[in-house]
Amino acid sequence: MIDVPVLVVGGGPAGMSLSLLLDRFGIPSLLAERRASTTTHPKARGCHARTMEQFRVWGIEDRVRRAGLPQEPTWPAGARA
Ligand SMILES: Cc1cc2nc3c(=O)[nH]c(=O)nc-3n(C[C@H](O)[C@H](O)[C@H](O)COP(=O)(O)OP(=O)(O)OC[C@H]3O[C@@H](n4cnc5c(N)ncnc54)[C@H](O)[C@@H]3O)c2cc1C
Hints:
Blueprint: E1 6-9, H1 13-24, E2 29-32, H2 49-57, H3 61-67
Parallel strand pairs: 1-2
Bound molecules: flavin-adenine dinucleotide (FAD).
């Protein structure tokens, strides 16, 4: 049996952020995600500037940028965003 003070259910942005912050504050936790891997379907095209500031503070900004789409528009020419 695993004994942890916090159980985080769901490894989406909310759960992953909570898990990361709990770790930063030295609070043990266990994150349970029902899926075995990351989703194959995109769930965000962009992040708010404040979100990127948080990612930078947490030391994961570069990894988030590398995992994202190119900064240039990816929709077809003439299409509206
Ligand atoms: C097509 C699309 C485009 C989007 N574009 C943007 C964007 O550009 N910018 C933006 O900010 N947001 C965007 N969003 C919204 C953003 O993806 C959501 O706001 C965000 O994912 C919500 O995060 P969350 O952690 O609350 O939930 P989720 O991302 O839904 O994560 C919940 C997780 O919990 C897991 N789970 C659920 N039930 C259980 C269970 N019983 N046991 C274990 N695990 C469980 C799920 O598998 C999932 O991984 C977009 C969403 C979609 C679908």
